[in-house]
Amino acid sequence: MAFQLPALPWAKNGLAPHISEETINYHYGKHHATYVTKLNGLVEGTENAKKDLADLVKTTDGGLFNNAAQHWNHSFYWNSLSPSGGGEPKGAIKAAIEQDFGSFQKFKDDFSANAAGHFGSGWVWLVKGTDGKLKIHQTHDAGNPLRDGAGVPLLTCDVWEHAYYVDYRNDRPSYVKAWWNLVNWDFANNNLAKA
Q1: Could you tell me which residues are annotated as the binding site for Mn(2+)?
Q2: pLDDT score at 118
Q3: In the CATH scheme, what is the code of domain 21-80?
Q4: What is the C-alpha end-to-end distance of the chain, expressed in Å?
Q5: Range 92-194: architecture per CATH
Q6: pLDDT (0 to 100) of residue 1
Q7: What residues of the chain score a pLDDT lower than 50?
Q8: What is the pTM of this model?
Q9: Start-end of CATH 3.55.40.20 domains in the chain
Q10: Which residues make up each annotated binding site?
Q11: pLDDT of amino acid 193
Q12: Taking the CA of residue 183 as centre, how many other CA atoms within 13 Å lie in the half-sphere pointing to its CB?
């Protein structure tokens, strides 16, 4: 069965004013959709058509990896955001952040610095590392923690320009600041519970 562009977990205008409907129309409707279309073209009629997306991310290279990983990353990113998100974390993720970073504010400052300062295009992740501790992890281009053994992804921030250029032009730090208003801590807690 062909890979599908997943339905968004909120309305296209649901993240405004932090991320506009126009950005979602481009980011989801054009960029993410194109990754899915290219991925289907690359796997059609091959053994890779039978693999699940995570397997493709872990085991392929080149254009196939790039499109599979970008499909996985974007699907994860949409769920990392919520119109009712933001604020202080709650539950197990709050306790884990405080234990491993010292405080939520320290984590927020470190994550923001990583996201704003990431050179070029990529992703910044909160992962549960193989040692059981939470870590901030950067990947370039289509990179993914599943691929490089960094741990289990809990949240991500997309720092490709197409994530913020419509709303913030080249001002990535302002986009990262706005991203905190949308962080889906319930999603992070669910991922942590399964990690």
Answers
A1: 27, 74, 158, 162
A2: 98
A3: 1.10.287.990
A4: 28
A5: 3-Layer(bab) Sandwich (3.55)
A6: 67
A7: none
A8: 0.98
A9: 92-194
A10: 27, 74, 158, 162
A11: 98
A12: 25
